[in-house]
């Protein structure tokens, strides 16, 4: 799979010295869905703006389809569709007119057949003659996507595409994104909804304080970083882990009613659960229930960002 976007040593520094991006390196593969996660102020929108040619980098380079976004702006911008966070639509204009106008902005010849097919794919065809003010929040988001796709771009940026959209419409948006991928569109989305990235992304990128912490295949990230826990509910509370079990790595919950055992299945060396349960029984520890828990992408994300923040504080000191 070839890279359609390459970002190298990208820095964005504002007046006053604040660095929104600090030497970002990123390669986006053609045809993938990349979810970019990060807390508020992490640099997600600034990075998108730099790739789209909206924000001028302070240093570094960005290439789209092999072309420089600064020196060959018109060529690179024509390859990109951008759906911003803000719903910025003409309230008293029809869906059809707005989409046709957006296509014209990119010097594309009129192609009503293409626009009709696109609107049908976004479930907007029956709303083509409706004015924006008459549409629901979810439909307005779809119109933003239609405008971004009107010139048939190869890359689509979705900046918080489901913000303020209810769960049902959010899932409908996921289906729309999946269909666009099947059509060959490369999709980069920023999101605050961890389940959104977990549901539809091929790769996950995590950005914090203007730096990319990692970019990795979603499945391998989950397998590499997620931990599993065996949670053992106790018949009688304990005040401490029995000395005979001190070498097992067991931890005791604050209320003393649960023992927790962390393990990893990736190494192929076994979990040690069978031996652990035997030792618990031999030690007279009575159990009422046993359950397993695997850390979610959200827990992984929070852990990485908190770890990065702690590292920055330590460096500052």
Automatic annotation (TrEMBL):
SUPFAM superfamilies registered for this protein in UniProt: P-loop containing nucleoside triphosphate hydrolases
Every ABC transporter domain range: 5-234
The keyword DNA repair belongs to this UniProt entry's keyword annotation: no
UniProt-listed CDD domains: ABC_DR_subfamily_A (cd03230)
Keywords of this entry: ATP-binding, Nucleotide-binding, Transport
Keyword Oxidoreductase: no
MF-aspect GO terms: ATP binding; ATP hydrolysis activity
Protein name: ABC-2 type transport system ATP-binding protein
């Amino acid at each position: 799979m070839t890279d359609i976007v390459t970002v190298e040593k990208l820095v964005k520094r504002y007046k006053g010295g604040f660095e929104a991006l600090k030497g970002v390196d990123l390669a986006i593969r053609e045809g993938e869905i990349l979810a970019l996660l990060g807390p508020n102020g992490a640099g997600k929108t600034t990075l998108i703006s730099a790739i789209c040619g909206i924000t001028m980098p302070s240093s570094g380079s960005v290439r789209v389809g092999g072309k420089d976004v600064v020196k060959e702006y018109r060529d690179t911008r024509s390859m990109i569709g951008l759906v911003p966070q803000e719903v910025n639509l003409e309230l008293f204009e029809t869906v059809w007119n707005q989409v046709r106008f957006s296509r014209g902005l990119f010097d594309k010849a009129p192609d009503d057949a293409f626009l009709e097919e696109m609107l049908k794919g976004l479930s907007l065809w029956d709303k083509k003659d409706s004015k924006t003010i008459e549409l629901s929040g979810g439909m307005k988001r779809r119109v933003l996507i239609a405008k971004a796709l009107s010139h048939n771009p190869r890359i689509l940026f979705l900046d918080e595409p489901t913000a303020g959209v209810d769960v049902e419409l959010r899932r409908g948006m996921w289906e729309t994104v999946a269909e666009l991928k099947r059509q060959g569109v490369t999709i980069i989305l920023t999101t605050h909804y961890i389940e959104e990235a977990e549901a539809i992304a091929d790769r996950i990128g995590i950005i914090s304080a203007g730096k990319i912490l990692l970019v990795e295949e979603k499945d391998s990230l989950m397998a590499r970083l997620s931990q599993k826990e065996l949670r053992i509910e106790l018949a009688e509370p304990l005040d401490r882990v029995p000395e005979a079990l001190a070498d097992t790595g067991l931890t005791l919950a604050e209320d003393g009613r649960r023992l927790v055992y962390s393990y990893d299945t990736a190494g192929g060396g076994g979990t040690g659960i069978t031996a652990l349960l035997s030792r618990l029984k031999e030690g007279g520890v009575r159990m009422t229930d046993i359950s397993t828990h695997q850390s979610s992408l959200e827990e992984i994300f929070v852990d990485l960002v908190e770890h990065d923040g702690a590292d920055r504080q330590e460096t500052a000191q």
